[in-house]
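Design request, tokens follow.
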């Protein structure tokens, strides 16, 4: 492992915490060291309290922050003396410890200090770094783990057997530090958990971490356990695979009691791991570090029998709960990681980000498992230790505090014409209520929308092959489809009927009608598997009820589209899919309208631009966001008993023009 330390870069981080922030970020940037909020760092510095009195402080990472994006505000300043006094207590529940850590802070706006704060306080060095390095865990998670650690590090590190993070671990480390630490100690190994390094400066502690991880890597190389197999052949997805994934997601959501995102991850490494004859057996021996159980559950599901997995999970919960004093709230029994011989590696979560985190963790776990197997054999912690972390009182308290989930959490929408205007507003509105969104547009700019919960796909909806590909990408990323918003449409230049060519007519029909038929046909099997029922909203036009001269093709296409939607509502009601239509009018913030066009059209009616924009019963301007809000509402439970309806969004238009 290469050191990335640069004095020049470090100097750009100002203030007494500058070097601490800099090296925290260096560690956080490497996923083979820490992932997704794992690990923590601290520094001991003199400060002053609110009364201006000098006080020794431990600045320790706040829980919930991520080393990769650490800032000075992410550290909690805790009185060092308070922490050292806490360490003397014979026992302290973790909930009481969390309260004491908060009370030890000198600022009320500080984040909650890491649960490992007392441990950091006990290490006499000024800087302390803690990671969950893959290379170390490949060595410690084996039957001969402690023997290997002695071979790799000699007496450079303090070695501590596995103890659950929290007060008990801090107490145990206090004893081991007192017994094992000497002048040349540079770190500490927590078996089956992670690695600590310490030093008097940020760079000394960081470089020692790199050295310690490098020693572990070298050991694996020498043992012939470093190189990992890969496999290239990318399996071709099929429409059948899409339905299979959507069915699995439906099952998983049913067992979880809420809609879930189900992400497929296919890399040369996942394929090589899954090709191993012992893949299932290895993958179910347990996680790399116990805190992963929160994200991945203790074991993945092999195959697709979700009910069988849930039964086993309930048994695991009942058996382990029997030995805990307080009654526990069972987490949903659905798997978070699925290994299927045909579908590959799939990960699940309440939001797209959760499924992505479970995938990242699983990829690193595959690497560690294969290296440990080449070295000796993969051995995770016993079930009871993993249960204790999964049902830790602080995690249970977090559950109790968690508010209601977002309205559309775990649901997936596909929006066409998503790069601008009403389509873009619908994407934003759906994201704001927690849905994952596939944003489709023929404008390649749509790809820029791609983020954790948004997949932007360039796609001409008149091209059935392109639609097929977009659906493959959508189902691979999110696992199914709940909402379909048919918004893409064209508004051709004005043309009188006696001058309208068939070519122009067909071009409009191809986008405004035919493409929507294709989309409805290929999404039917997916929408039918939506955990809460499928919903389709068609963006038609006020033109259907009030056609305009010069707009024959447009008006006829939107009337045709409306009838298509109404018939679909009739046919799909038995599949529990609702289909509704919106008829917006005079939405001027959509890009087709520039100032010049607005002035011309307003002049045509003898109105000012302002009068023209608000020329409806309510005298209001209708915006893309207004239309998007109605579309989202039609997808919501408020309209659970409405299908085949047509809703105008036009400020009231009867008898205005
Ligand atoms: Zn840790």
């Amino acid at each position: 492992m290469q050191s990335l330390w640069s004095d020049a870069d470090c100097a750009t981080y100002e203030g007494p915490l500058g070097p601490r922030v800099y090296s925290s970020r260096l560690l956080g940037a490497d996923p083979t060291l820490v992932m997704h909020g794992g690990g923590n760092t601290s520094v001991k510095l003199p400060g002053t309290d609110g009364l201006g009195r000098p006080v020794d402080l431990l600045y320790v990472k706040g829980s919930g922050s991520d080393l990769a994006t650490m800032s000075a505000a992410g550290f909690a300043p805790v009185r060092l003396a308070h922490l050292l006094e806490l360490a003397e207590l014979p026992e302290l529940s973790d909930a009481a410890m969390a309260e004491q850590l908060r009370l030890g802070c000198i600022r009320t706006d500080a984040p909650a200090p890491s649960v490992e704060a007392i441990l950091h306080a006990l290490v006499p060095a000024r800087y302390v770094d803690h990671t969950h390095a893959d290379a170390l865990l490949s060595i410690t998670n084996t039957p001969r783990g402690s023997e290997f650690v002695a071979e790799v590090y000699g007496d450079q590190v303090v070695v501590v057997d596995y103890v659950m993070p929290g007060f008990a671990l801090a107490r145990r480390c206090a004893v081991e530090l007192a017994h094992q630490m000497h002048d040349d100690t540079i770190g500490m190994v927590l078996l089956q958990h992670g690695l600590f390094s310490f030093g008097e400066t940020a760079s000394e502690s960081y470089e020692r971490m790199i050295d310690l991880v490098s020693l572990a890597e070298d050991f694996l190389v020498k043992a012939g356990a470093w190189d990992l197999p890969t496999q290239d052949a990318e399996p071709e997805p099929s429409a059948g695979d899409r339905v299979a994934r959507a069915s699995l997601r439906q099952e998983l959501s049913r067992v979880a009691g809420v809609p879930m995102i189900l992400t497929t991850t296919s890399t040369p490494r996942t394929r090589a791991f899954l090709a191993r004859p012992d893949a299932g057996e290895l993958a179910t021996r347990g996680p790399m570090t116990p805190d992963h159980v929160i994200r991945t559950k203790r074991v993945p599901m092999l195959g697709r029998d979700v009910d069988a997995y849930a039964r086993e999970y309930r048994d695991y919960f009942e058996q382990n709960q029997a030995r805990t004093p307080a009654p526990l709230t069972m987490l949903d029994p659905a798997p978070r990681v699925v290994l299927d011989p045909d579908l590959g590696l799939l990960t699940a979560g309440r939001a797209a980000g959760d499924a992505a985190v479970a995938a990242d963790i699983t990829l690193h776990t595959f690497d560690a498992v294969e290296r440990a197997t080449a070295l000796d054999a993969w051995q995770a912690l016993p079930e009871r230790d993993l249960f204790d972390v999964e049902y830790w009182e602080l995690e249970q308290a977090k559950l109790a505090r968690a508010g209601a989930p977002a309205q559309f959490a775990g649901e997936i929408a596909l929006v066409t014409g998503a790069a601008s205007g009403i389509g873009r507003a619908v994407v934003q509105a759906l994201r704001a209520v927690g849905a994952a969104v596939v944003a489709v547009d023929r404008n390649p700019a749509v790809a820029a929308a791609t983020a954790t919960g948004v997949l932007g796909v360039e796609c001409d909806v008149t091209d059935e092959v392109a639609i097929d590909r977009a659906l493959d990408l959508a189902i691979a990323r999110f696992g199914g489809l709940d909402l379909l918003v048919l918004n893409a449409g064209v508004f051709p230049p004005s043309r009188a009927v006696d001058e309208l060519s068939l070519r122009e007519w067909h071009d409009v029909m191809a986008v405004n009608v035919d493409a929507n038929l294709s989309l409805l046909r290929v999404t039917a099997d997916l929408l039918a598997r939506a955990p809460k029922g499928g919903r389709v909203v068609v963006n038609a036009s006020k033109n259907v009820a009030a056609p305009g001269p010069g707009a024959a093709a447009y008006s006829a296409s939107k009337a045709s589209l409306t009838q298509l939607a109404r018939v679909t509502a009739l046919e799909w009601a038995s599949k529990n899919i609702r289909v509704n239509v919106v008829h917006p009018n005079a939405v001027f913030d959509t890009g087709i309208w520039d100032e010049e066009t607005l002035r011309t059209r307003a002049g045509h009616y003898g109105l000012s631009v302002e009068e023209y924009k608000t020329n409806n019963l309510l005298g209001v301007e209708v915006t893309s966001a207004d239309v998007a809000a109605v579309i989202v509402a039609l997808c919501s439970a408020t309209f659970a008993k409405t299908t085949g309806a047509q809703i105008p969004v036009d400020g009231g238009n009867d008898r205005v023009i």
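Comment from the thread starter after seeing the answer: thanks! The radius of gyration is 30 Å.
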